[in-house]
Amino acid sequence: MDDFKWNHDEVSSLAKKWNEAGLSNTSSGRFLNDLAAKGKPPMGRGISWLMDLLEKGDPRPWVELGKAVADLAPKAGTDAETVMNIARHLSNGDPLKDWHREVIERVKGKILQGGQRVPTPQDKELARSLENYKAGQSPFYWAHRSGSSNKIDRIIRVINSGGEICDDDINYLRSSFKGVVRELDSADHPVGCLRWIEGAAMYSGAGHRITGVVACIVMSKPFVDNAHRVVSVNVMVNDTLGVVRMKSLFTSADACKNTK
After folding, report:
1. Which segments within the chain are labelled E, that is strand?
2. Residue at 189 is within a domain
3. Tens digit of pLDDT for each residue in 109-150?
């Protein structure tokens, strides 16, 4: 603050620009107008506030850019939420940040490519399974990956709401959960096939009444179970429908016994 120099004309000029930008009723706009009207420099923390506003300069270009950025949101797909946050930032008279530029350029590129589409039933199934799986992971794991976590959540929200996505969004989900996706895509245990399990492995249905190695019929494609958050399948054992972790399925009774 030692280099602060009061210049009433400079502050009055900046206050006028904030008014022209439609920001006179913001806290910064009122602050500048008050200083311009009184003709006296601020005190205490007001000095650093004023220096920050003087450094930011004319807010009008940012406000106009904010309007243009907001117009991108309806076509931004999974980036729509981020685009609107950037637009609000700019509409407050705050300058564009470097990462804002990257998002805007990426969105413009997607719009030019015209790759936006509505989610397919397969996309929705994938989103539901990965959402369940992610919910079962340690919050400490995602605490160190907040950027990736937010992007994953954003893509899943758009898919669940039926909004537009692009193939890059699906590819991002798949690459973020490679092991899980590999299990979900597996054709090792197709619907209708005969498999063997240890009865105690069934954690839904009447599994608690089944003991020993038993045969079962696979009744569904792989999915992530809501309760245990692992890749599972529905199986039928002695007319009883249950759920079993896919890794607990074996192609023969002997193979199942040999795991003990």
Report:
1. 194-198, 213-218, 223-224, 231-237, 240-245
2. no
3. 888 777 778 899 999 999 999 999 999 888 888 888 888 898
Q: Which residue has tokens 């973020």? A: 176
Do 74 and 98 share a domain, yes or no? yes
Tokens 């904010």, located at residue: 66
Q: How far apart (Å, rounded) are the C-alpha atoms in residues 260 and 241?
A: 24
Residue at 88 is within a domain:
yes
Would residue 247 count as lying in a domain? yes
- Residue reference for tokens 């890749």: 231
Long-range pairs for 178-187 at CB < 8 Å and ≥24 separation? 180/129, 180/130, 180/133, 180/224, 180/231, 181/126, 181/130, 183/222, 183/231, 183/246, 183/247, 184/126, 184/129, 184/222, 184/223, 184/224, 184/231, 186/222, 186/246
How many C-beta neighbours within 10 Å does residue 152 have? 21
Domain boundary among 58, 74, 89: 58
Determine the structural domain holding residue 148 and report its residue range: 121-184
CB 127 within 8 A of CB 173: yes
- 53's tokens: 């506003």
Q: Is residue 235 part of a domain?
A: yes
Whether the full predicted model's pTM is greater than 0.85, yes or no, is: no
Position 260 scores a pLDDT of 54
Domain count, the chain: 4
Residues 66, 53, single domain; the answer is no
Residue 49: CB atoms within 10 Å: 16
For the stretch 46-57, pLDDT in tens is 999 999 999 999
Q: What pLDDT is attached to residue 1?
A: 53
| Model confidence at 208: pLDDT above 60 | no
